[in-house]
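Re: export button greyed out
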Amino acid sequence: MDIEKEDLLRLYYFLKLTRGLEDRITAMYRQGRILGGVWTSNGMEAISVGYACALEKNDIIAPYFRDMGAFLVKGITPRRIMAQYLGKKTGVTGGNEGNVHVVDINLGVLGYPSHLADNYPVAVGVALSFKIRGEQRVVAACTGDGGTSRGDFHEALNMASVWKVPVVFFCNNNQYAYSTPVKLQMAIKNVAERALAYAIPSEIVDGNDVVAVYQAARNAYERARLGEGPSFIECKTMRMHGHSEHDAAKYVPRELIDEWKKKDPVINMESHLISNNIAKEEKLKEIGEQVVKEIEDAVEFAEQSPLPEGKEAIEGVYATPV
Amino acid sequence: MEITYLDAIKQALDEEMTRDRNVFLMGEDIGYYGGAFRATEGLYEKYGQWRVIDTPLSESGFTGAAIGAALMGMRPVVEMQFADFISCAFDQIVSVAAKNFYRWGGKTPIVIRAPFGGNIHGAAYHSQCPEGWFFNVPGLKIVAPSNPYDAKGLLKASIRDDDPVIYFEHKYLYRRIKDTIPEDDYIVPIGKSKVIKEGEDISIITYSAMVHIAIEAAHILEDEGISLEIIDLRTLLPVDKKGIYESVKKTSKVIILYEAPRTGGVGAEVAALISEEVFEYLDAPVVRISAPDTPVPYSPPLEEFYIPKVDDIVKAARRLAAY
Ligand SMILES: Cc1ncc(C[n+]2csc(CCOP(=O)(O)OP(=O)(O)O)c2C)c(N)n1
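Workaround output, generated via the alternate export path:
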């Protein structure tokens, strides 16, 4: 599949934006400016950027908590995300939900519960509605390797396959679920083997290669749109920070981190663009500068935004108030 | 020596594992890592990987496995990383564990440790007080200690009990509450409340983290000449009716204080018991102070509004004192 230059630059832009925004959030967390925990997709940005860039505008994502790239690609602005992290009224949930729970159903981003893999069956329902209504839309669902041990994950795959609905399941296999290495999570070597039991075609891709993720996603979406049913894509990667920013991750061997540092998805993409003559250094520098501006603007916006008032806590419980 | 609420939990686990080889632990990240809150730190090194088991991310699975092991005479203690995730294991708890004994005499001595509660900026899924979800399940026992002494004694009692027990431990108290506790082996019996502070005018019936704001409020009200009696329920199911009635008979005015949403939980049940059994002793309406019926919000002003505060108690007590 040929990818247009524009699309490649778009991938690069969102990689940079995701990295920059999460780095800024981490720095602010360390200064005590963000309450609660902070979990990032550092080193794994290519997965959410790749699968989201391959979607059409009216497709849906059912994400998990390391999908910042997908939130941005779907059009949720850094301003609204930063405001969410600061618990501001202008954030995507007006201060109701925790920082990392970025959502906007009008832009095709479903909110995700913390309970891992809860969104997998929900994604199947989204796809089912597309099938019933004869719409050419797809849904992309993502979870981590740990999340695939939950019953909801397995029930979702089974239903999706029986009903042949247009859903593509992604697994961010970053080798650890908190402190738990994959070998204590499952006895199989690849998460993708889980899909086999449900007769769902699967593919394993290099999760640090945004182009590979993008291509695999596009193929799977195409199958789904043709009515050929679900696919499963395992993206191999490495969680480069602790589980959250308070976790020093001493349980991860240093060498593993050093090895994966060499495969950084942002730097990866930079060399790809330069060595294939797709973009010059100045162009990438320009993108980098634009990203910094957007992030600083977002921080300023968020800091100047008002907090909600305490009594607003009891509003918005019912969609149809009684 | 002074120890924290968290240390008390760790000590209870350690001592019970030494005392009884059938006691073992299961949960996510509890072994090599020592647990998300470090409640099991050091136990993996001491007892090995088959007594401190790092499970896959499968709450329903490992709770079911605990039930199976319990039926074979083991005494498993499972950890929910956060109480919020207990919903994933709901079916095993309410359909299997709670009913085994009544249906067919199957003793199911499991303990489910569930770190719960807010005030830690954890929002909707890392702050909940889910005890109300289980209040309606015959066969379960539910405990919720407020201090290191009870934390240790109730956990030991729960492990030795032949029924399934949900042990709600408050995350906010883990490192904030310290006390000197006895070195020798003791238990705190399940089903018994405790008078934390004797008083004359108003009974405040509460548990877990809310006990501490009740104590603060009592100090403030003392200066105003209003005397609070504080009852720490310690066990929520089955609740200590006798302890509640005795206090109500003495003071004739009641506040029920809890951090969970208002509707359908401890507050409703205790209020109903009081109006059924000791109505004629009451001089004023029973008052509930709780979180509102909303999910737990994130933004600081919202969470601050959500969680009951000392001031809420002081105001309610003044209102009741006027009766
Ligand atoms: C059902 C459930 N149990 C426990 C947790 C607590 N928890 C949050 S993230 C996490 C590890 C997740 O690992 P994985 O699915 O591999 O995703 P990763 O963090 O590696 O991206 C755990 C145990 C949770 N969110 N949901």
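Chain B has two domains: 2-180, 194-321. The button fix ships in the next patch.
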